[in-house]
Amino acid sequence: MLQMPDSYHPGPVPKEALEYFRAKGFKIGFDYRDVWKAEHANAFTVAKATELDLLEDIRTAVDQAIESGETFAQFRKNLEPILKKRGWWGIQDVVDPKTGATIEAQLGSPRRLKTIYRANMRTARAAGQWDRAQRTKKYRPYFLYSLGPSRVHRDLHLSWSGLVLPVDHEFWDSHFPPNGWGCKCRIRQISKQEAQRLGGVSQAPVIQMQEWKNKRTGQTVFIAQGIDPGWDYNPGKGRDKNLNSLLDDKFKVAHPDDANAAKKVWQE
After folding, report:
1. For 203-261, what is each residue's pLDDT tens digit?
2. Residues near 122 by beta carbon (within 8 Å), at least 6 away in sequence
3. 5, 12, 108, 196, 264 from 37: Cα distances, Å
4. Which of the two ends of the chain, N or C, has the fewest CB atoms closer than 10 A to its terminal CB?
């Protein structure tokens, strides 16, 4: 795949992306499979960062990167010394809390920092884009699936390139990019006129499902082919559910006898 240089600037970050990230809580996870799919919309987690203060340090660095539109080089320069000082760096023997087994694991590294940076930047931007689309879909009612700047693309991602579907089509519930580790695919919101110039609304692809077993939990799930396990969800929709839940909790605390009426007042 074509790699962006570490000095590549991601550009201005929409405020909705930062709001999405800041609405998250925390969740400790030893393995990436411990926190699943849309749970990532509700909680910030880094595999094997099992101490809350460490997780808070990493989150603060990601928050700053999203808010400032930092390059990866800037993000790494800020965070790497903190992780090294905390001893969360390199390959170390650690105890898996689920199994009790001691394993040799990779903690902090340039590659892991890049994964943390890219995954959080892309999902935050995706959530922000979804939020804006819900406000502007009257004027630009379609999404166009586009390939990102990779030299080699997954076969099914290639087949989705140029796909035009309504903003609220169920296809985007599971196929809103990013659609896997390192996926650089993207969505562009377009008008009816542009959709017509591109050949009109597409026929939605038939989603083929495949069985996948989460060896951490023992659970067998079905995931869409062409999407990495755990990535078949829409970050923006997960954000909406999380914010609604937080809002409901606030109403119940402030107005336990009339939460619905309080919610109406809040929204007005």
Report:
1. 999 999 999 999 888 889 899 999 999 899 998 886 555 555 444 444 444 444 544 44
2. 177, 178, 183, 184
3. 29, 26, 23, 34, 31
4. C
Both tokens of 67, joined, read: 């808010």
Question: In 87-183, which ranges are E strands?
Answer: 91-95, 102-106, 142-146, 164-166
Is residue 85 within 8 A of residue 53, CB to CB? The reply is: no
Per-residue pLDDT reduced to its tens digit, 136-159: 999 999 999 999 988 889 999 999
Helical (H) or strand (E) element with 58: helix 52-68
Tokens encoding 181: 């580790």
Distance CA 104, CA 29 (A): 16
What does each C-alpha distance from 1 to 115, 148, 179 come to in angstroms? Answer: 15, 10, 15
